[in-house]
Write a structure and sequence with these properties.
With about 600 residues, the protein is of the alpha/beta class. The protein has 18 helices and 25 strands. Helix 7 links the parallel strand 9 and strand 10. Helix 2 packs across helix 3, helix 2 crosses helix 5 and helix 6 packs parallel to helix 7.
Length: about 600
């Protein structure tokens, strides 16, 4: 039996002839990055455990969340990283560089068939060039910096066959928003996706980056484009490493295969709160906006900037609307300057900032306030992600056109607005507040269940990004579910030993370790879910925090507050109130071993 792309890459980096889905392997990591919000915790882990570096040449910091250092805690964390880098000879892509995942590609650290990890949950953007990239928590990164390897469970693979031709007015962002409309946030949870199709060769590197970057929002491990010659040439020009592109074998086995006709794809917008809640732009034309944002790892490349400039040239942002533009890297920023795009942006009334993640990471320009309605090219619009207002997601053309019109509009129909438009309504977003402790691992645990039967509870709902600079676990518990509507008081009611029971795709979103540590801080003993976001599950296992999945929990007849008993080794869960039991998915030996050791670094 042949192998898929992900299986081949993992097998090569594990020193094996072959691997199959479900295998847990140690893989060598070619590029090992930590960002400014996670970097200080990586340094702390290394120092606390007296761990040395495997290879400084493959190790780097990327300051992209808050390159301006406008937040005091970010500034402190960056300085901690700089001091460590000087001491250890580690490369720093500092505040003048841009988004780390883009730097990995453009500076030749990653190439087709390579492996990379970062504290960025969108490290799977590297699938755009046929490379393996994963966002991971600070424990994983520290371990990789020390060992040069990380453990990884080989995922199942799915084929996406895109038939037909892309309509001429469809952007890469529209393509991925159409895919989100079809698959939602968890249909492809935990899979590695491979994209093939009639018109895929027409997609540029920038297009592929846009699409691959939102694999995270689909719940996928990674979305891989088999590299064509233009991608191979681009990477060969930038890397000193010799490489051989990786392609799936003709007889590779896939868990599923989907054929999708792209000729019917339309310009799409994600409604506030959920990236997968997408609709045809025609359905919401005319919604008043207050601000617009063009940038992020999803749409900050030079092609995105050119599209925005083509819409904005000779026009001006509507009165009462703020447009913020942030190129993904300093190289893109300089190219915008050379091509005259910066002048177009400024003449149109836009604010242009230095390269970085910007509003998407809550660290730079791009944030909005309560009641503010924003249209953004970012990859996420979870409540609170880009501020306290409401965020629609769209392509650069739609965002630029909407900024000119003052309302959501199609890029092909941009009216000129000369006076302020007063909004009749304002979208409201949920907010939050919260508190917490932990115990030694036992294979059988009992506790009171806290039933929160919702799907797609993301990391911003669990532990909002405005608290990311917190490194003391004792401070984290109070903010647990601070941003989950209806559960803002969770921390004040939580008791040591509580077991959370929840739905699908728990912990989707970013790679932040704090979304696990906040439960440890409160003393929650476990989380039982139908499925977990891939990075979240790793972070929990690595922190020795018990997480377990089930297939069907209805037979337990659970009520909030029932006492349950969980056997992590056998997978049995018993409702002690009525005696009902189910068979859930037991811990792997790797998970049990890590829990016994008190964590990956124990």
């Amino acid at each position: 039996m042949g192998m898929t792309i992900i299986e081949k890459i993992l097998a090569q980096h594990a020193g094996r002839k072959s691997v199959k889905p479900g295998d847990i392997v140690d893989i060598v990591i070619d590029a090992r990055a930590a960002r400014d919000f996670g970097g200080a915790n990586v340094v702390k882990n290394l120092r606390d455990h007296a761990l040395s570096l495997d290879n400084p040449e493959k190790t780097m910091f990327t300051f992209d969340c808050n390159p301006t250092g406008s937040d005091q805690k970010y500034a402190v964390n960056q300085h901690i990283c700089r001091l460590y880098a000087r001491e250890q000879g580690v490369r720093v892509y500092d505040i003048d560089a841009g988004i780390g995942t883009h730097i990995l590609i453009d500076r030749g650290h990653v190439y087709p068939g390579a492996t990379a990890i970062s504290t960025d949950s969108h490290a799977n953007i590297l699938g755009a060039i046929g490379a393996f990239g994963q966002g991971m928590g600070d424990m994983d990164i520290a371990s990789a910096w020390n060992r040069g390897k990380v453990w990884f469970k080989v995922p199942e693979s799915v084929q996406l066959n895109l038939t037909g031709k892309f309509p001429p007015d469809i952007a890469a962002k529209d393509i991925v928003l159409n895919l989100l409309k079809i698959f939602g946030a968890n249909t492809l949870l935990g899979y590695s996706l491979e994209i093939y199709g009639d018109d895929v060769s027409s997609l540029s590197l920038d297009d592929r980056i846009t699409i691959s970057s939102m694999a995270t929002e689909m719940g996928a491990i990674i979305l891989l484009f088999p590299p064509d010659q233009k991608i191979i040439d681009y990477c060969r020009e930038r890397t000193k490493n010799d490489f051989k592109p990786v392609y799936a074998d003709p007889d590779a086995a896939y868990a599923d295969s989907f054929s999708i006709d792209v000729s019917d794809f339309r310009q799409m917008v994600s409604r506030p709160g959920k990236p997968h809640d997408t609709t045809d732009i025609g359905e919401i034309v005319g919604v008043k906006i207050d601000s617009a944002f063009i940038g992020s790892c999803t749409n900050g490349r030079i092609e995105d900037m050119r599209v925005a400039a083509s819409v904005l040239k000779g026009r001006h942002v509507a009165p009462g609307v703020v447009l913020k533009i942030v190129p993904s890297t300093d190289a893109v920023w300089n190219q915008c300057l050379e091509e005259g795009l910066i002048a177009i942006f400024k003449e149109a009334g836009a604010l242009v900032s230095n390269a970085g993640c910007a509003g998407c990471a809550a660290g730079q320009v791009g944030q909005n306030g309560p009641g503010e309605i924003t249209v953004s090219t970012g990859n996420r619009n979870f409540p609170g992600k880009q501020g306290k207002g409401s965020v629609y997601l769209a392509s650069p053309a739609v965002v630029a056109a909407s900024a000119v019109a003052g309302v959501l509009t199609s890029s092909v129909d941009t009216p000129v607005v000369t006076e302020f438009i007063q909004a009749d309504t304002r979208a409201k977003t949920a907010e939050a507040g919260v508190k917490k402790d932990k115990s030694d691992f036992k294979e059988i645990a009992e506790g009171k269940c806290r039933v929160i039967m919702e799907d797609n509870i993301d990391t911003d709902m669990i532990f909002h990004n405005r608290y990311l600079a917190i490194t003391d676990i004792k401070e984290m518990g109070q903010y647990t579910f601070d941003n989950l509507g209806g559960h803002e008081d969770f921390a004040s009611k939580a008791e040591p030993g509580d077991i959370i029971v929840t739905g699908k795709n728990f912990g989707s979103g970013s790679s932040r370790q704090q979304a696990v540590d906040c439960f440890i801080s409160l003393g929650v003993s476990a989380i039982i879910a139908e499925s977990f976001g891939a990075i979240y599950e790793r972070n929990a296992i690595n922190a020795a925090f018990p997480v377990m999945t089930y297939n069907d929990i209805s037979a337990l007849g659970l009520n909030d507050g029932d006492r349950i008993r969980v056997n992590y080794r056998s997978g049995e869960i018993v409702n002690m109130e009525n005696g009902n039991s189910i068979q859930a998915n037991p811990f792997s030996e790797v998970q049990i071993d890590i829990c016994r050791r008190g964590g990956l670094l124990g």
